[in-house]
Amino acid sequence: MSPATPKDDASRVRRRDEIATAAIEVLATKGFRGLTHRAVDEAAGLGPGSVNYHAPTRSRLLHLALGQLFARDFEVAGATFGSLVDVKPLTADVVVSRIVDFIQAMTTGDAAKRVIARSIMLGEAQHDREVRELFDTQRGAFVTYAQWIAASLDSQDPQAEAETLVVMIEGLIQRQVLIGSRLPRSLVEQMLRTIIGSSPLIAD
Q: Whereabouts does the entry annotate DNA binding, in residue ranges (predicted)?
C-alpha cells in the first residue's frame, strides 16, 4: 500500500467537512431522529454508504457535526469581535453594535441552521457524556474569549462579566431563531443597553 500524500489528506479533510455540514443540515431540517447515515449521504450528494467510511457510528457523526459547528461559530466571533480592542474610544454604543452584528450573523442563513442543530444536540448532551464534554469545552473557550475582551477593556471582574456577556448573547441568539418572530435590531440594541450601558465592562 502506498503512503498517503498531502493531497489525499486534504481530500479526506474536505470530505469530512462536507459530511459534517450535511449532518448539520439534516439535524436542522429533520431533527435528531432524522440523523441517519443515509440522510447525510443524500444531503451531501454522496453515494450510499459514503458517510460510513468517515463516520462509521452515529456518535462519530455527531462529533464531526459539532466540530464543524463550533469552528464556524468561532469564525463568526473572530470576524465580529477580533478588532474590538483596537477601537478607541470604546463606548457602550460600539460594544452594543458589535454584539448585535454578531447576533444577526449567528441567526441568519446557514448560521441559523447551526443554532437549531446545536439546540438539538444540546438535548442529546444531557444523555451522552462525551457530547456534553464537547459542549462544555466549546462554551468554556467562548467564555475565555469573552474574558479576554473584558480584560482588554480594563474590566474589574473579567470572569464574572464574561460569563454574563456569554449568557446574554446565547439567550438572544436562541430568542431570535427558536422563539416566535424575530425582534427588530433597535429593540435588541435597547435590551443590551439596559445591561451594558451601566456595566463596568465598558471602559470610558
A: 36-55
